[in-house]
């Protein structure tokens, strides 16, 4: 079988697996977030947290809880890094430098998992387990909580409440992420991912040298890194490292872990608003965009149109033999379509247009299917913008799922959409404005601009992958990218919760003859169109100077 | 709790939540997984060590001597960007871009830097010499550098060929081609990579590129086939025997379509030493 045909079957098999999984998992998520009963473990946790689990919260209270939890999380992750040498299981690592520790703390709390450090030479085992992996769980649970709160806004009427943050956080963690991670971790160990608490182990190589084989609790962190669309690798080489992604089939399994929850949430959404077909429409938008992107990325990488890939005969620089070009390109597309940012091949060495696809995927706002939770709420905001645009065309007050999209709703949705592009473009401009910051580029010419544009796109969209040639462990980049991550995560979350609150208060509008049906292919096409046009208008000038200039030269 | 100001309450809950979830997700969960993994999958949980502590089946090694020269009786791994090569404490890729084609030539006070294209060309030439085949590739000079011109109005410069090297072409579109002088800034010229007339390269793609991890334990079947005659000669054993061992250590695509066929170099070399 040719490599292209095998790559196509690889993609097809993932599509089938996701299609089979989305319904049971989406239904499970529906039960988790709508059930009135707390199980015994959860009741115990609520007692330890001293929260009233049966009280519902208004959106400002919900947001305050979420922000407080995130602030304390940043402090905890920062503290554990700074004190790691005095704690057990440090594996001999010194304390993490201040600016790197800040960047990493923010990075993991915001579900970005941008890494300005190299895992194997910076983080002790305890920091990996108790600081970084914990945030892999809870930042994902926070993302799901926000998405569910927005869906409740659509589903409820004349209600002041959008749920209870602590209940959503705990349920998402203990009923969804923890059991799936536990099983997934053991599957990965069976495939060769390591799981121990040892330090490095010296072996004597065949030619008389030595090699330091690293140890660590990798599998338990690897699984949630993917399932929670986090992406922060235990090692610098991330999912290209044989101890993180040892086999061709673990590569397939890791992709399924990434896609499972983001593609299941539209089903949950449909169930919660009482119209499963509305979930299908959202799923269709995500699916169309995702498939188009995966196929384009594959086409560009397999085509190998650039000087070095032509000299080599294939775009193999930065890629592993066991994955080959196609399965690497698929991983590159999926990791940027979601907010994962894990890599099994290095995007900096992709062909110009293949590398552009990974950037464009993030610029879409990571909605196809996006991060756990973040993808759904981003997509619903775009659906709101779409009904507004459609309403303008026919001169009617737009409505979505029986809710009027009035001035307040469209202001919140527009601000949501504008936040990340503003961060990306302003951040890139600042970085390009000084020779000292430009000196961080590894590559020159348009590719150097791409490295910086990629960094700010990745940070502001909470992705975490990189054109890794850029030297980012400098105080300026650590602080600037850290601020992009904070604003790129929490401003949209506050706007979404405010939107949820304003929708929950409304009474439903009855469907009329002029109501735009939002479950038909026409609407799917509209959302896809609006998304692509908005993103293209925003980012084409920047892309033209980076990857497009490089690809056409 | 009731006497606390309202704004403080979520923070107290947050502190408790972070503490409790850290114990559950940061200690109980990973330690339970570690315990189970150690019992159920002892070998793989500890790094799949092979050959009586000669390395890990999953982590690639360099099969070169102390001076970095390939040891002839061993199959060679791919180029690596991890530290000095296959260093698990410094994993990673070269991160050089697909149009990184212009070298910085070494000169006084300037260590120089090879472009990705020149690295590819130099590796191809070296592998060709080691295996006794042509190392020629498109966009490469016969000397193993990137065949790249910087074109100016009155002349052109072969920027990756330091003087006094004779440029790979004498003229370009009527312009005289000069050799590259270290320290001269050619950035203003138009970059023109020259394909040349090399056919399909004898040295496969994975032999001239660094992997993403820098620890790639595999080579392609084509690269193993290329190396087999040299290994057989160096060891004085039949080529057929070597080919059989290569086949035994080749993993095909799982289910026929997942991944690419790959040869595990360390396990293959261990098997050769045993046979």
TrEMBL record, chain A:
The keyword Transmembrane applies. It is a multi-pass membrane protein. GO terms for molecular function: P-type potassium transmembrane transporter activity; potassium ion binding. It comes from the Bacteria. InterPro entries: KdpA. Its main location: membrane. The chain crosses the membrane at residues 61-80, 87-109, 129-155, 176-194, 252-269, 281-300, 367-394, 415-433, 479-503, 523-549. It is found in: Cell membrane. Keywords: Cell membrane, Ion transport, Membrane, Potassium, Potassium transport, Transmembrane, Transmembrane helix, Transport. One of its GO terms (cellular component) is plasma membrane. Part of the high-affinity ATP-driven potassium transport (or Kdp) system, which catalyzes the hydrolysis of ATP coupled with the electrogenic transport of potassium into the cytoplasm. This subunit binds the extracellular potassium ions and delivers the ions to the membrane domain of KdpB through an intramembrane tunnel. PANTHER family: POTASSIUM-TRANSPORTING ATPASE A CHAIN, POTASSIUM-TRANSPORTING ATPASE POTASSIUM-BINDING SUBUNIT. Belongs to the KdpA family. The system is composed of three essential subunits: KdpA, KdpB and KdpC. This is Potassium-transporting ATPase potassium-binding subunit. It comes from Nonomuraea fuscirosea. The gene is kdpA.
TrEMBL record, chain B:
GO terms for molecular function: ATP binding; P-type potassium transmembrane transporter activity. It is found in: Cell membrane. Coiled coil: none annotated. The chain crosses the membrane at residues 12-31. Keywords: ATP-binding, Cell membrane, Ion transport, Membrane, Nucleotide-binding, Potassium, Potassium transport, Transmembrane, Transmembrane helix, Transport. The keyword Cell membrane applies. Pfam families: KdpC. GO terms for cellular component: plasma membrane. The keyword Transmembrane applies. This is Potassium-transporting ATPase KdpC subunit. It comes from Nonomuraea fuscirosea.
